[in-house]
Design brief:
The protein starts with a strand and ends in an 8-residue tail after the last helix. It has a six-stranded parallel β-sheet, sandwiched between helices. Helix 1 packs across helix 4, helix 2 (43-55) runs antiparallel to helix 4 (76-91) and helix 4 runs parallel beside helix 6. The chain has helices at residues 17-39, 43-55, 61-70, 76-91, 103-112, 125-133, 158-167, 182-190, 217-223; strands spanning 5-8, 116-120, 146-148, 175-179, 194-198, 213-214. It contains nine helices and six strands, in the order βαααααβαβαβαββα. It has 231 residues and is α/β, with parallel strands linked by helices. It is 46% helix and 10% strand. The chain has two domains: 5-16 and 98-223, Rossmann fold, CATH 3.40.50; 20-91, no CATH class. Strand 4 (175-179), helix 8 (182-190) and strand 5 (194-198) form a beta-alpha-beta unit.
Length: 231
């Protein structure tokens, strides 16, 4: 039976891991100090910096942020600041969200057929909206009814997926979760969701024998009796 809603990861699933690590993260690293110096008095930036100070009392926020960035920490203040900074980069054209070629046609076909769509990523909600809103395939953000980030919990916790299902007012069994990471799929499956691992050789994904696998979104459509992408 086709799912009523598709919940998708981003990095390694809709988008090349290289885009995140070779484009988005370096953009932040290069601009961080100047951005904070220029915008620390802006309310939303000041609020994030307050959260950074609360997380690491007595340490300069810039040092804390760089420490988190060095280990790719999935912490909400860092992700929030990244989202604010990426907003500027997308708005002035320095950034465009990468999507694998199979993604946009499938998302459009599923939405047109009545399948609901949502995103769950460790990147902030704003970062998710920006990537899809300023994607190479055009503005896809309106296709999604929900964008979920680490405020729902970490992606390897069963409770996170139960909370998302509740927020979407759907039984977990009506939701198909797409990710490249086996441990995320384990948690979603334990919450009762259908799952599929995207195994993209370009990203070096390690296939998991615990989950159904697909090479691209067209294969997902075939395997789960969903509307195939046009063309």
């Amino acid at each position: 039976m086709a799912p009523r809603l598709v919940l998708t990861d981003i990095e390694g699933t809709t988008t090349a891991i290289a885009f995140v690590h070779r484009t988005l993260f370096p953009f932040i690293a290069q601009a961080l100090e100047e951005f904070i110096a220029l915008h620390q008095g802006v309310a939303e930036v000041a609020a994030v910096l307050d959260d950074v100070r609360a997380a690491a009392p007595g340490q300069p926020p810039l040092d804390t942020l760089r420490g988190w960035m060095a280990v790719d920490a999935k912490v909400t203040p860092l992700k929030a600041l990244q989202g604010i900074m990426w907003r500027q980069g997308y708005a002035d054209g320095r950034l465009r969200g990468h999507l694998w070629p199979d993604v946009a046609p499938a998302l459009r076909a599923w939405h047109a057929a009545g399948t609901r769509l949502a995103v769950y990523s460790s990147g902030s909600e704003e970062a998710q909206r920006l990537l899809f809103g300023f994607s190479e395939a055009g503005d896809l953000a309106p296709l999604f009814e929900g964008f979920f980030d680490t405020r729902m919990g970490t992606k390897r916790e069963v409770a996170s997926y139960a909370a998302i299902a509740s927020a979407l007012a759907l039984p977990p069994g009506d939701i198909l979760f797409l990710s490249d990471v086996a441990e995320e799929l384990d948690a979603a499956a334990a919450a009762g969701m259908a799952c599929c691992q995207l195994v993209r050789p370009e990203d070096g994904t390690q296939p998991s024998p615990r989950h159904r696998q697909a090479r691209d979104f067209a294969a997902v459509a075939r395997d789960f009796a969903m509307q195939p992408p046009a063309g």
